[in-house]
């Protein structure tokens, strides 16, 4: 009889423990998922800015307006803070600075810069 009283007391003390474990695990998995999604968004933005900067430098090297091309090529979800293309007799250079898009609007992850230099093709 004593054994059943002890096990009943232990079960009443452990009631709700699995719920707390579930909540803790769920919050951890949710945070890990948000981090993976944020890294994917940042990588996507960096890839697009890098490609557009490279193509803009190529156009600048052959005498076209690389800045206009870059601004028209990038999606509106990427906030561009600076686009600058220049050329001289030997090379063309484009610099693009953009904010890292964030999954949560209240959180800022800063900015990144991509610089591409191409040889002049005259």
Question: Please, could you describe this protein's structure?
Answer:
The chain is α+β, with helices and mostly antiparallel strands. It has one domain (19-119). Helix content is 54%, strand content 21%. It has helices spanning 2-14, 17-61, 66-73, and strands at 80-87, 91-99, 111-119. A hairpin with a 3-residue loop joins strand 1 and strand 2. Helix 2 (17-61) runs antiparallel to helix 3 (66-73). The protein is rod-shaped and about 95 Å long.
Give me the count of strands.
3
Largest sheet: 3 strands, antiparallel
Tally of discrete structural domains: 1
Strand order of the largest sheet: 1-2-3
Helix content: 40-55%
Question: Could you name the ranges where pLDDT drops below 50 across 5 or more consecutive residues?
Answer: none
SS-derived structural category: alpha+beta
One letter per element, helices H and strands E, the order comes to HHHEEE
Mean pLDDT: 90
Counting DSSP H or I runs of 4 or more residues, the number of helices is: 3
Shape: rod-shaped
């Amino acid at each position: 009889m004593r054994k059943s009283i002890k096990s009943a007391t232990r079960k009443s003390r452990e009631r709700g423990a699995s719920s707390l474990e579930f909540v803790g695990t769920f919050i951890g998995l949710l945070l890990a998922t948000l981090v993976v999604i944020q890294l994917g968004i940042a990588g996507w933005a960096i890839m697009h800015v890098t490609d557009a900067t490279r193509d803009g430098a190529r156009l600048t090297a052959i005498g076209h307006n690389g800045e206009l091309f870059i601004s028209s090529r990038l999606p509106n979800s990427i906030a561009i803070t600076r686009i600058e293309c220049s050329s001289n007799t030997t090379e063309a250079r484009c610099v693009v600075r953009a904010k890292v898009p964030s999954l949560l609007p209240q959180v800022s992850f800063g900015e990144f810069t991509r610089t591409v230099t191409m040889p002049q093709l005259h």
